[in-house]
Amino acid sequence: MIKAGGPMFLAPFLAFFNSSTWQNMFFLDADQVTWAEKMIRPILVYGALIVLLRIFGKRELAQLNPLDLIVILLLSNTVQNAIIGNDTSLVGGVVGAIFLLGANSFFAHVKFRSERLETLIEGKPLKVVDQGKLDEKQLSRELLTESDLDIIAHENDLEDRHDIETLVIDTNGTFLVEGKNEIKDARFKREVLEKIDHLTKQLNELNSALRQT
């Protein structure tokens, strides 16, 4: 005899034997989306994102502030809908992922074989600060403020933007920072003094231990 609540407990297990469960997972709804559409959508979205990132610059890749992070999060949700269309089946998601990865692999091979196409797709590194001087044109293009430069300086153990000798935005949005010579010299001296102080403490501890033996 099945106790009260038994059928409810068995319902999840019985669902495995329901044909509609597997059909919804592994078969596309022909009335909603076609196989060709599932294959083409990811490729078109991938290409569109490449073009858009080239147009709007590399700031979004760097994610300097909460606004940039929000854009990335919303963008991922937006293109997700564009990729899957009206189909939410498991097989549809796998097909979309396969063609998305395939598009990425194709462009990676293209970049590897042609430096010109690599530059066309990713652009060139941008030098924003050169010999301590700001390139206002590049700053305006990448929408970088003085506060953003201060943040970049802090992330590279510098006091503020005035300590930056060279700042380059790489094609992947990474900031390559080099401090001014006097800053690097001061940091080097500080690190050496810290190491000397650490060694001195270790020697004092060792001498104390030897005296006690």
Q: Which keywords apply here?
A:
10 helices; alpha+beta; extended; 2 domains; 4-stranded antiparallel β-sheet
- For the CA atoms, what is the radius of gyration? 28 Å
Low-pLDDT windows of residues: 1-6
Strand order of the largest sheet: 2-1-3-4
Number of strands: 4
State the separation between the terminal residues, measured CA to CA: 80 Å
Query: Main β-sheet, in a few words?
Result: 4 strands, antiparallel
Q: Estimate the strand proportion.
A: 5-15%
Structural class: alpha+beta
Can you write the helix and strand succession as a string? HHHHHHHEEHHEEH
- The level of helicity is 55-70%
Oligomer: single chain
The backbone outline, from C-alpha atoms, is extended
What is the residue-mean pLDDT, rounded to a whole number?
A: 79
Number of helices: 10
Domains (count):
2
Note down, in words, how this protein is organized:
It is a single chain. This protein has 213 residues and is of the alpha+beta class. The termini are far apart. It is extended and about 80 Å long. The longest helix has 32 residues, at 181-212. It has a four-stranded antiparallel β-sheet with strand order 2-1-3-4. Helix 3 (35-56) runs antiparallel to helix 5 (66-84) and helix 6 crosses helix 7. The chain folds into two domains: 7-122, no CATH class; 126-179, CRO Repressor (2-Layer Sandwich), CATH 3.30.240. It has ten helices and four strands; from the N terminus they run αααααααββααββα. It is 67% helix and 8% strand. The model is unreliable at 1-6 (pLDDT under 50). It has helices spanning 6-14, 19-26, 35-56, 59-62, 66-84, 90-113, 115-122, 136-141, 146-155, 181-212; strands spanning 126-130, 133-134, 164-169, 175-179. A hairpin with a 5-residue loop joins strand 3 (164-169) and strand 4.
